[in-house]
DNA sequence: AAGTCGTGGGA
DNA sequence: TTCCCAAGACT
């Protein structure tokens, strides 16, 4: 694996080349948190934005919550941003501005679980650690032809990964396994002819490696309905801040009621206005439900507008508000809908 | 310990 | 279109 990695490692902004000294732990940590359940392509821009604006963990710890949440907007899983900020502040307050170098210490920090602690320990500190992400699970399930379906197979896959993890260059080994999973041992149509583990792979020998890992079927995704309230006054639109806990927690948002099983219409309107429906609707898919939104447009009088709770944000600069994608879609729909009449 | 938590891209 | 998936953590 290490020989393969020396030749085929992906060059990524948060990495050092194979066999060279490890990168700054701050950059390793930042990239690992961003990469949780998120594609490399999506992380690139946000990683550059964060490291340019906050070059050290002390800079990030001193940042305003709002600035960090805005910079994170669009990446998804917003609890990561809140945990990331809490983690940076804990590193400064409790660890003198230096990340702990061992898994046990890393695990005590917010947003760092078993995978991330192992990855940081191996990649940033050269510690031997068992690094198991989705890629590694797939590679190892095939290598040993593990028939147990996920997620029940996780302990078994962890033990098998432990067995093949070397003490030398543990960070490069972990990244090699992940690169292999991302580029060769892919979920569908693995490129076995290019794989350095070709002759050792039990699934390859069986003739149908893509069959593994087995997985338990997922439940169907329910559909929910909601209304977005586009409240416009004097070239600005009313934005609110969502509560810290729960879906899209802590993010700036357009006013909306609960998202429920049947179309709520104007039931949760934040004010008694002469609402006008924008044509069409907005479709957005979350992890565990699909959402269908209609947009209601209201134009308050001056006296009424000043009483509404929230921020009046200039519509021309709405792209700087740090809206999660679902609200950015709704805003687009509202602006287009108004233009259509 | 199953459910919660985003988003965009590829097949 | 629809489904699946991507360097998981937290409760």
TrEMBL record:
The chain positions of domain HhH-GPD read: 34-183
What CDD domains has UniProt attached to this entry? Answer: ENDO3c, NUDIX_DNA_Glycosylase_C-MutY
Kindly report, in one word, the top-level EC class recorded for this enzyme: hydrolase
**Could you tell me which Pfam families the record lists for this protein?**
HHH (PF00633), HhH-GPD (PF00730), NUDIX_4 (PF14815)
Question: SMART domains recorded for this chain?
Answer: ENDO3c (SM00478), FES (SM00525)
The catalysed reaction is: Hydrolyzes free adenine bases from 7,8-dihydro-8-oxoguanine:adenine mismatched double-stranded DNA, leaving an apurinic site
Per UniProt, the cofactor note for this protein states: Binds 1 [4Fe-4S] cluster.
**Cofactors per UniProt?**
[4Fe-4S] cluster
Highest taxon, organism lineage: Bacteria
> Is-annotated flag, keyword Iron-sulfur?
yes
SUPFAM superfamilies assigned to the protein according to its UniProt record, in alphabetical order: DNA-glycosylase, Nudix
> What are the entry keywords?
4Fe-4S, DNA damage, DNA repair, Glycosidase, Hydrolase, Iron, Iron-sulfur, Metal-binding
State if Metal-binding is listed as a keyword: yes
Q: What is its EC number?
A: 3.2.2.31
Tell me, in a sentence or two, what this protein's role is: Adenine glycosylase active on G-A mispairs. MutY also corrects error-prone DNA synthesis past GO lesions which are due to the oxidatively damaged form of guanine: 7,8-dihydro-8-oxoguanine (8-oxo-dGTP).
Give the UniProt family note: Belongs to the Nth/MutY family.
What name appears for this protein in its UniProt entry?
A: Adenine DNA glycosylase
């Amino acid at each position: 694996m290490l020989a393969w990695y020396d030749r085929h490692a992906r060059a990524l902004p948060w990495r050092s080349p194979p066999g060279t000294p490890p990168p700054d732990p701050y950059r390793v940590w930042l990239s690992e948190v961003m990469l949780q359940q998120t594609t490399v392509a999506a992380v690139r821009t946000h990683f550059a934005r964060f490291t340019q604006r906050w070059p050290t963990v002390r800079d990030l710890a001193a940042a305003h919550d709002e600035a960090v949440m805005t910079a994170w907007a669009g990446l998804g899983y917003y609890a990561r941003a809140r945990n990331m900020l809490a983690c940076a502040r804990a590193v400064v307050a409790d660890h003198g501005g230096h990340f702990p170098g061992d898994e046990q210490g890393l695990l005590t920090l917010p947003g760092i679980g078993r995978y991330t602690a192992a990855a940081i320990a191996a990649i940033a500190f050269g510690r031997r650690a068992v690094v198991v992400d989705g890629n590694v699970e797939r590679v190892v399930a095939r290598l040993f032809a593990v028939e147990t379906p996920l997620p029940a197979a996780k302990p078994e896959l962890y033990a098998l990964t432990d067995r093949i993890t070397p003490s030398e260059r543990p960070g490069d080994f972990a990244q090699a396994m992940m690169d292999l999973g991302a580029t060769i041992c892919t979920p569908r149509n693995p490129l076995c002819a290019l794989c350095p583990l070709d002759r050792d792979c039990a699934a390859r020998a069986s003739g149908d490696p893509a069959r593994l890992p087995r997985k338990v079927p997922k439940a169907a995704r329910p559909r929910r309905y909601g209304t977005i309230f586009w409240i416009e006054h004097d070239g600005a639109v009313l934005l609110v801040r969502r509560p810290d806990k729960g879906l899209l927690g802590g993010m700036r948002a357009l006013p909306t009621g609960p998202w429920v099983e049947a179309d709520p219409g104007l039931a949760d309107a934040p004010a008694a206005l002469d609402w006008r429906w924008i044509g069409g609707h907005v479709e957005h898919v979350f992890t565990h439900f699909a959402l269908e939104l209609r947009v209601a447009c209201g134009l308050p009088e001056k006296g009424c507008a000043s009483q509404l709770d929230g921020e009046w944000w200039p519509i021309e600069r709405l792209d700087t508000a740090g809206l999660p994608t679902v609200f950015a879609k709704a805003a687009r729909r509202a602006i287009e809908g108004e233009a259509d009449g």
